[in-house]
Structures are given as C-alpha cells and as structure tokens.
Design goal:
Elements: H1 4-13, H2 17-35, E1 38-48, H3 74-82, E2 91-96, H4 100-117, E3 121-125, H5 131-140, E4 144-146, H6 154-159, H7 166-178, E5 182-189, H8 196-208, E6 213-218, H9 235-248, H10 260-263, H11 267-273, E7 278-282, H12 286-289, H13 304-313, E8 317-318, H14 323-333, H15 345-359
This protein binds S-adenosylmethionine and iron/sulfur cluster.
Length: 364
C-alpha cells in the first residue's frame, strides 16, 4: 500500500537539479543539527572470505570456485591492531563471509581480548546466525552489528538468493536490537529486477526497523557472479537514497560506502554532503585484500589519507567518539512519540554533552 511516507520517498529518489540540491541541503542540515560537523571514522578488518551463502550479487558466494579462500590467523588480526591503528579510528568492525568457523576461531577470541584492553567501539558484520551466537559475541564485548536486508521485498530477496530468508534476517535484526545491540542495516540499490515499488518498499521497511544506522550501497556487478554482466546502479538515485534515510531517521549513523567511488570519483564526498556521517578505513592486510572481492578485484581501497581528505572536502571533521557510544546515547534520548524517530530538539544538546565527556576516554 502506498502511504504518504512512501509517496515522498518514491518522489525524492528521482529528484534532479534544483530539487536534488534542496533534498541534499535539507539532509545535510538535519545531519548537522544532530551530529554537528563530525563524521565517525571506523576501521574494518576483513577476516575471511569463506561463505556458506550463495548470494547472486557477491563474489564471495560459495559457488565462486575461482576465489582463493582465506581466514586470517588470530595473530595476523592482533598484529593489525597492535601495530597501531590510524589515529582517527574510534571504532573497529570485523567483516567476513558467512562462516561460523571464522566467527568462533578468530572474531570471538580477538574481540574478547580487545574489549578488555581498549575503548574502541567494536562491531561485526558476519551474517545471519543462530541467535545464541550473537549473545556470545555480545558477551565477548561487541556492541554493534551490521546486518543488511539488501532488498525489502521477500520475492526479490529470494530471486537474488540473499542469505536465508528476509523473514529470518528481520528476526535477527529485531533480536539484536532487543538485546541491546546498536544495529545497522542496509540496502543494495539498483539490484537487477528492482522496481520503483520495490525500492519504496525497501526504504519503508528500513525506516520501520529498530536501527541505529543504515547504509545504501550502489549495486556493482561482481566478477565471478551470475550478475557480472548486469548494469551497475545509478549514482544519483543512490545518493538521493542516502538523503532520504537521513531525513527519515535523523539520528541514524549512515555510512558513505567505498563502492560509491566505483560509480564516480566524487561519489564518496557527495554522500557525505547528502547526509552520510560515517567513513571506513580498510585495515585488511594488503596480501589478502584482492581475495575479498567486494565488489570486484581492483576495488577502491579507503586508506586513512583518502578518508580524511574526503571528510575535509565535505566540510566536516573526524569525530573523536565512537559511533556506538554516540548512537546508544542518542537511542536512549529519542522519544518514542517523536514522528519518524526524529530527534526532539531538546535532546540535541544532551548528545553534544555526552560526546564531550566521552571524548576524554577515546580509543587507544
Ligand atoms: N556475509 C555478511 C553478510 O552478507 O551480511 C557480511 C559480508 S558481505 C560481503 C557485506 C555486504 O556486502 C553485504 O551485506 C552486501 O550488502 C554487500 N555486497 C555484496 N556484493 C555486493 C555488490 N555486488 N554490490 C553492492 N554491495 C554488495
Ligand atoms: Fe556471503 Fe555476505 Fe557475500 Fe552473501 S553477501 S555471498 S552472505 S559474503
């Protein structure tokens, strides 16, 4: 059913020229009203590329026999962290194919050690698992989980062979939120067979979930996948979707994703100007980066230098605080009665105060 909410989102996706500029300006002002000029900087370590799933769009799908599979040794992960993270990094994310082995043997023990030693905000993006495994990760010290729905239409989800079922993915998201995680989800915009109805439905579903953040990634046809010959997503619509998410949920942490730079050299900076407020530095050891084909070999690697330059070009500055710390204080200050989860004006000052206090105990 088309509601007023999905109506404006559907129209805004198509905005161009003056309407597009106005949309982004509103999104940027909204972001600044909640977060000021600050953009969160997290590091990501891609700890393995084994995957039991077979998503049609992803180069790590289990049927891609051409891929050299790896799992990082715990010591290799410890070295990345121990040799000194870039000074701007306040959060660390562990990402992998859906692989219970890497979760148990690498991620869990490393998070356990890390949580005892540092104040980094720790998050994971590992896939859909038995809910008890999420409890174990939380017990170890992780606080953020990234679980994207990819598309909000169950038939489309099945067609693209996304992990398990949409229902199960949603159940996991709700469970994580109920058990105190900061949950971020996301959408791959422009997947084959996406229609305007499916796009609007996906945005509506995302905006109804108990999330702390959400991303929009443009679909990039991946090598070694059944969709390698498909058309890539349209950058302008992807950026409009970033602005729509910001306006729909002002308190969300919305990443600028590196795939935007595969669409256009300015894609990343433009996302930061359209309402995004999180940038990710890739910390995967260089020997393994090419084996993590997100989105294809020769992917655009975001180094600290590139991330800081993009933040500066967007007229912003790196946040001294972890997105997880800030988003949990925001969640607790968002009134359940406020429309579309927007931030009541009175809570914005509280968040700024929390931010100043926690910046004294920043990540080591
Ligand atoms: N396996 C975990 C999962 O699927 O949740 C985490 C790792 S997976 C590589 C991280 C994300 O990559 C997926 O959620 C999906 O949105 C994104 N991705 C994979 N292939 C993509 C493509 N061709 N274009 C855009 N995004 C893609
Ligand atoms: Fe596996 Fe995630 Fe890629 Fe799907 S998107 S094939 S679950 S790594």
């Amino acid at each position: 059913m088309r509601t007023a909410e999905s109506g404006w989102r559907r129209e805004a996706l198509e905005a161009r020229s003056d309407a597009q500029r106005a949309l982004w300006d509103r999104a940027e002002s909204t972001r600044k009203a909640v977060f000021g000029r600050r953009v969160f900087v997290r590091g990501v370590i891609e700890v393995g590329n084994f995957c039991r799933q077979n998503c049609a769009y992803c180069g790590m799908r289990r049927d891609n026999g051409a891929l050299r599979r790896f799992r990082l040794a715990r010591d290799a992960v410890r070295r990345v962290i121990g040799e000194g993270l870039p000074a701007s990094v306040t959060d660390l994310n562990f990402q992998a194919g859906e692989d219970p082995v890497v979760l148990r043997e690498v991620v869990l023990p490393v998070i356990e050690e890390l949580a005892n030693e540092s104040r980094l905000g720790i998050s994971a993006c590992l896939g859909t698992f038995d809910l008890r495994l999420y409890d174990e990760l939380k017990q170890a010290g992780a606080r953020g989980y990234i679980l994207k729905i990819e598309t909000g239409d169950a038939a489309h989800y099945r067609l693209l062979r996304c992990p398990g079922t949409l229902e199960r993915r949603l159940e996991a998201i709700r469970y994580l939120a109920q058990t105190g995680w900061s949950v971020s989800s996301g959408w791959i915009h422009g997947l084959p067979e996406e229609t305007p109805d499916r796009a609007a439905e996906t945005l509506d579903l995302l905006c109804s979930l108990p999330l702390a953040g959400c991303s929009v990634s443009p679909f990039i046809p991946g090598e070694g996948t059944p969709l390698s010959g498909a058309q890539a997503a349209d950058l302008e619509r992807t950026l409009n979707a970033v602005a729509i998410l910001r306006l729909s949920s002002p308190h969300w942490v919305i990443p600028a994703v590196s795939a935007l730079n595969l669409c256009h050299a300015s894609g990343y900076v433009r996302a930061l100007r359209a309402g995004a407020n999180l940038a990710t530095i890739n910390l995967t050891p260089s020997a393994w980066r090419d084996d993590y084909p997100l989105y294809r070999p020769g992917r655009w690697i975001m180094t600290e230098e590139r991330v800081l330059r993009a933040i500066e070009e967007a007229g912003s500055e790196p946040s001294p605080d972890s997105w997880i710390a800030v988003s949990s204080s925001l969640r607790s200050s968002v009134s359940p009665l406020s429309s579309r989860g927007s931030i009541p004006a009175s809570s914005v000052g509280d968040v700024a105060t929390d931010r100043q206090e926690s910046s004294e105990g920043r990540a080591s």
